Every structure is written in structure tokens, then in C-alpha cells.
């Protein structure tokens, strides 16, 4: 059995995740908690195989909780799960030690597959050497990608790079197509995994958001 800890501050979402996972013959939910601090405490006490962690939660947010878990319980396997499509949460999750990053609109099949793969020791955020994908992204598109990873809007990117908003939109569209991503967060995720974004990328703090997820 793969023992899973679920951390999410929305009761309905948390209960739904638990029911979804418990329906799988090889998955067992050992606990569900509603904030980051409780997730840390439960992880240290129960040592689950995989922690499914929401990004934004009260008391202690998911990324801070992830950092504490990795410091106090090295080797823990944590998958970040969020309703956010904001790019600014992707790279900090990698750096903090997450083994995966998913949005909550993920299918049950994909979610359970990721949990199994992570429990087996895979990291879905590993960065392989840049392959042919890197050559297809232009230098200007890499600059736009770096701005996207900082969660800058098209207008802000245009101002930063001295481009028109229309040109930025075109670059973003080309980036999504080249990386096979459906949204900006997915593009940043794939760019990071393919080595297109530097590890020392300086990030601006996420804007205050209140999606509860």
C-alpha cells in the first residue's frame, strides 16, 4: 500500500481527494489536514510515502511547509497540488524539494499515476540536460519565458523588454506551442524541466492572491 497524507484547507476538496484516493486498491490515506503546520506535524509523526500538499493554506503555506518537511524529514516525497495557474509558484516548489506539481483540474488517472511514480522514487521535477527543445526556443522567447516565471503580465513583459503587448502575446503563443503546454504555468514547468530556465532565476514574491487553493 502507498500511504498518502492529504493537506488542503478546503474541506470539500480535501474530502473529495481522500475519497478519490481511497477508491484505489493500492492507495491509503493515512491522514488529512487543513493547514501547512498540521501537514508538517503529521508527516513527522506518520511518515507517509507521499504528501499531497496544497500551495496556499492558513497558518503555514504549502511551500513553507514543504521546506520544513524537507529540512526535518529529508527524503520525503511531496507533490504540490493547487488551483493556481500562476507561474511564480512552480520554481519555488522545485527549489524547496517537491517531487511533483499538479493543478487541481488534473484527472483522477493522472493524479494517481503521479502518486505512484513519486512513491516509486521518481521526481517529476528533475531537470534533464537540454535537448532539441532548447534549440527551438529563440533568445527573445527565453527572455519572455524568464519574465513569465516571475509571474509578469503581458503588459509588464512588454515594458520590461521594450516590446508591444501584441508582440509579447505572439511570443507567449509560440512558447506554449513549442513546449506543448496549455497554459503559462505549464510552459514554465516544462521550460524548467528542460533546462531552459536558470536555477538561480530571481523571482519576485507572488502577488497577494486569495483563491484559497
**Average of per-residue pLDDT values:** 85
**Describe the biggest sheet?**
5 strands, parallel
The proportion of residues forming helix, as a percent range, comes to: 40-55%
Q: Quick one: CATH superfamily of the largest domain?
A: Response regulator
Based on Cα principal axes, name the global outline.
elongated
What does it look like?
- By secondary structure, this protein is an alpha/beta fold.
- The protein folds into two domains: 2-119, Rossmann fold (3-Layer(aba) Sandwich), CATH 3.40.50.2300; 132-193, Winged helix-like DNA-binding domain superfamily/Winged helix DNA-binding domain (Arc Repressor Mutant, subunit A), CATH 1.10.10.
- It is 48% helix and 13% strand.
- It is built from ten helices and five strands.
- The chain has helices at residues 11-22, 36-46, 62-72, 90-96, 108-119, 132-136, 139-149, 154-161, 165-179, 184-193, and strands spanning 2-7, 27-33, 50-54, 78-82, 100-103.
- It has a five-stranded parallel sheet, sandwiched between helices.
- Helix 8 packs across helix 9 and helix 9 crosses helix 10 (184-193).
- The longest helix has 15 residues, at 165-179.
- The radius of gyration is 18 Å and the shape is elongated.
- The model is unreliable at 127-132 and 205-213 (pLDDT under 50).
